[in-house]
Amino acid sequence: MKKFGFIIVLLVVSSGLLYAQSRRIINIPNISGYQTLKCDLHMHTVFSDGTVWPTVRIEEAWNEGLDAISITDHIEYRPHSIDVVADHNRSYDLAKPLADQSDILLIKGAEITRSMPPGHFNALFITNANLLELDDVQDAVKEARDQGAFLMWNHPCWDAQQPDSVLWWDEHSYFFENDMLHGIEVYNWEFCPEALDWANEKMLTMLGNSDVHGPMDVNDGHRPLTLVFAKSRTIGGIKEALFDGRTAVYFDNTIVGRSEFLEPLFFQSLEFKKTPLKLKNKESKVVKITNNSDVDYELELVQPGVGFDAPETITLKAHHVSALSLSGNSDEVANSGSLDVYYRVNNLLTGVDDPLVVTFTFRNN
Amino acid sequence: MKKFGFIIVLLVVSSGLLYAQSRRIINIPNISGYQTLKCDLHMHTVFSDGTVWPTVRIEEAWNEGLDAISITDHIEYRPHSIDVVADHNRSYDLAKPLADQSDILLIKGAEITRSMPPGHFNALFITNANLLELDDVQDAVKEARDQGAFLMWNHPCWDAQQPDSVLWWDEHSYFFENDMLHGIEVYNWEFCPEALDWANEKMLTMLGNSDVHGPMDVNDGHRPLTLVFAKSRTIGGIKEALFDGRTAVYFDNTIVGRSEFLEPLFFQSLEFKKTPLKLKNKESKVVKITNNSDVDYELELVQPGVGFDAPETITLKAHHVSALSLSGNSDEVANSGSLDVYYRVNNLLTGVDDPLVVTFTFRNN
Amino acid sequence: MKKFGFIIVLLVVSSGLLYAQSRRIINIPNISGYQTLKCDLHMHTVFSDGTVWPTVRIEEAWNEGLDAISITDHIEYRPHSIDVVADHNRSYDLAKPLADQSDILLIKGAEITRSMPPGHFNALFITNANLLELDDVQDAVKEARDQGAFLMWNHPCWDAQQPDSVLWWDEHSYFFENDMLHGIEVYNWEFCPEALDWANEKMLTMLGNSDVHGPMDVNDGHRPLTLVFAKSRTIGGIKEALFDGRTAVYFDNTIVGRSEFLEPLFFQSLEFKKTPLKLKNKESKVVKITNNSDVDYELELVQPGVGFDAPETITLKAHHVSALSLSGNSDEVANSGSLDVYYRVNNLLTGVDDPLVVTFTFRNN
Amino acid sequence: MKKFGFIIVLLVVSSGLLYAQSRRIINIPNISGYQTLKCDLHMHTVFSDGTVWPTVRIEEAWNEGLDAISITDHIEYRPHSIDVVADHNRSYDLAKPLADQSDILLIKGAEITRSMPPGHFNALFITNANLLELDDVQDAVKEARDQGAFLMWNHPCWDAQQPDSVLWWDEHSYFFENDMLHGIEVYNWEFCPEALDWANEKMLTMLGNSDVHGPMDVNDGHRPLTLVFAKSRTIGGIKEALFDGRTAVYFDNTIVGRSEFLEPLFFQSLEFKKTPLKLKNKESKVVKITNNSDVDYELELVQPGVGFDAPETITLKAHHVSALSLSGNSDEVANSGSLDVYYRVNNLLTGVDDPLVVTFTFRNN
């Protein structure tokens, strides 16, 4: 019997696999002048303490409908380094071709990883991660800044670093005052109320990221996201928006951000007819409101309308039509040109205890 | 101790309950010149052999996102008549106020119910159901026609009436030739291929209905529907469209209808960029196709492109973005102004074995 | 052409339809000496202000895996009486044959319906509902008691009857002291804390029911249920258990009841190995706990173990295996014969602010 | 300002993360004398052409409820070798501690990877993967055999290796006849009918595996599995069962295997009462059958009962109770001591066109 069995050249299937799966759509609307980009700016691979290859991060981003990600492997913590031998730019370089092919914006990043203070900082839009490997954290952060980086304080609420309290240290003031701290994670595994307070006080850019280490598992939901309100769907567009503070943080069924972004986001999610209601005393009229977004908006009445009643609470369910029923309770209502209803949106937060308040104005006559 | 306990006037909660639930949206697009109305034109209540009150049919229609329904209680079969005492117009009259309040179009109908031939006929757009209670089925159908009714043959494939074969009887020819048979159920509990053949041969209007008797249970799906391509969202608009044959039948993940409706329905479901691909030999380009409809379109390549390869099969998943990858396989492709790809859409049927064939034309240069 | 079209005798399909659907299984274990029967003892049909035919209630009970129901149509409130003409026993009589065929225990009941006080009372196990139609509520309740009825106060928290407060009136004391009030609804549309307090103070039987009027919609969940710990799966067994107070109330992911029932229910839900752990200082051992019930048990540590640490919180997810990790923190642990861990089960409530506390005892040596 | 920011020792969280998630239960029953172990014996990591770290394979196995896995990285194909530098035993060594901690049986394996013939072979239960790196495939397979390996032919239907036909080559006969081919993948990404035929003809052990390269994504389902009927839940128990051919292949809602295993698997999944039915002519009796397994069994009547009718088709839905209705159609039925009903189970396959036929025997008197 003749010999057989040559060692073969296999088909490399990975580059085509991306297109075996369909890409979800995250339905969060654009707002006037800006595209709303869905970004996750904190994650790891086997090149630090993660457990997936960099290309997996692109495949996940494609599948889940993201616009942009940053792989932010730790500079100082690489537990797989016995087996995985490469410099700090390698995870970016390995992911970039698939990112380009699938139109995912890949932002070059790294995580500067220290004990508290100052804790962990992500440096985004860097040009060379290897130069960040410096003993002194100030030197490392300064190097990142000199590369043009956007710098953010990661997970200030992480109890492994601050078990008993969540403090802003002198070190953070130092970085903040020297243009080396531009943003803060308001969400990373959990919501961090202190971070939201500081973001509002100091006008830090708000971020919400997954910090995923293993394979991403989103089931029917979505990972935590930084919504970036960008002038263009480009890396430059994201950078400009981050430095300008134009973000919101989307986790579970909640969005946190400044009212100037949340209010248009809310109304751009909705459709309802503008025809006059012609509401009269002792009559009811129904406004059908279509919510085209993925968010179930949870509304609570702030103050009764003038001359009419509106429901105390109503949920505008995602991708459904809700019926808002208004009932006239005085004769004057028939003469009102328009009807104003004020609702608190309990899952749109501008501050820790500050849900967004919105005004619906319906034409009446 | 004083006496207590007066018999009370209860709050009537039913009229408000409608608005406790959100209304789904059925995402099937409009086509040029027509609104695509989602209609179920065959169902029952306790006023014949159903087990729900007529208002339940309106609540279900609201919840599921329907535009129009017809309650078609049997004239001749009323097994609850010992307890439920009313004339044949009663189920319509009881449902109408809630229909109006919730903007569901309620078409007055009834089911003329006989053994085969001719089986069961729905009469839609009638004015007085009581007048259809006549011994002779010809007289009953004639009365319906004289009221202006659209008349349809229900579930020709129902094995309780035709156990061994599905036949078109002389009786059906008689009705058809005398303007007393305008449509046929292509779907009722199951797809009826013979009905589709007859609809195509005789230009009968195609219908697909639930014929629901108990509470509707749609889980995460949708009930079988008649899609009506109407000039306006009115009862008159539906009537005009039905008599003109402008319908399609939507069940499970399949739509059956004439190609003049299915083709625009398909392309109106999709979005993709029109920028030139600039495909060259030995290169690949990806067209990202967004499917905004609820239907997963299942495509199978009919014939290879000229100068390029396209996938043999691809599913355009509902509410997802799919990536169609084209690969140049000859030098001429670089000179083509546009690239044509021909796909069979296996779940859009124009005939029993006739899936719709569609042509994608992508600009290349 | 010859005449055709006889009025036909249709197949009556309803009696067979029951078996077209599979029956779910509600996984709540039996406890020592008792079967845990899943019961809903409050619901309506078209024979009062409901919107479904009585047989629908049996079909729903079959599909959802219930053991017993009671149809409790209002004696005093029958808004459909223009069309639906029957006496108060009729809904029971119509449902009974299908109940027998499908082995659902159907308890004859009615709702005595008055303004507050005393509000609405369900009378269960009655023999003739017509005799309850009496002007004076005392007479009506007395008649029920004389028929051997178990009497319960329905939805004491219903804000249509008690908008600003939830009170126990003299009338309730009167009924309670005269053997005419045996149970109270702790859950009906919502949890009623006052009812739970009264049930505990006065040893009233706790009930949780759906009070469903329209078609039941349980999606992937379950309706609110009264769990009855009965000596036999019979109507007599349920009656004996109700009068003896052997019930718990199961809604959403919560069970409310006395600890004598909740504790065995909890431990009967679980399986884990009894082999010695041999835990030593600075080592960890994992106990794998299988939860065979439908309830996700949410545990919170009450007090640390002696010589070892256990997780602060752990969820024992329904139909999953959870890993409880114990870590030795002193040398003595190696000598312990058994390890006790105390957890609060936050969704098993014995009182309004009293979650059940359970002790896990693991053999160590 | 003083300097700050030491490089820190991070908490290593990965070893504890396993227990953050609950473990599913795969409900496929044991059969007499054997435990039914759920095994996936073919998968990859970054140490060949996979994209996850070896520990991920253990976490996935824990989460999904598997008993045993084998990581079978390619010997000859390691596209990440520029970055990932290690020998062929490394993926096993990295996964083993977590496997032990979580009680997942980890079988040492490797994939010998050649063009067709003979294609790809998995060697399971090897002792040193490095010794398999040999130019001649016969030498490599022989080395594996000498290490005591169970050897299987992987994915014979893979069209990248056999695009136009699925052939058994002389090389396979050579290996088969020389104790170097013991099993064959009947399922790998797709069902391979030829493999099932060969398994039956030659008594090869049937296997069904995931061959997963990226993160496992099972949604609500399960990955393809080899069901191993083992005398003990040990690696030795699995090895003995594999060499003895005691397996079945479980994919989607289908199980493929020999009838001696499928029949007891089917009946061990079911519960029904043994009390006599006492069926008489013109009466119906219902047998309630509880299916405790995860498989929806799809039954089709093979031949009518003697003296009674049974449903033509019935689905015994997973974790539900189904009602099998028997109707007497002759007077003799009342005298039958027992009633036999023969069903084909369309999703239990003993051969390509050979569904398992089962006999239900119900006591009648």
UniProtKB/TrEMBL annotation, chains A, B, C, D:
Q: Which Gene3D superfamilies match?
A: Metal-dependent hydrolases
Q: Where is the Polymerase/histidinol phosphatase N-terminal domain?
A: 39-116
- Any one Pfam family here would be DUF5001
- Matches recorded under CDD domains: PHP_HisPPase_Chlorobi_like
SMART domains assigned: POLIIIAc
Q: Which domain of life is it from?
A: Bacteria
Q: What is the protein name given in its UniProt record? A: Histidinol phosphatase
Q: Source species, please?
A: Draconibacterium orientale
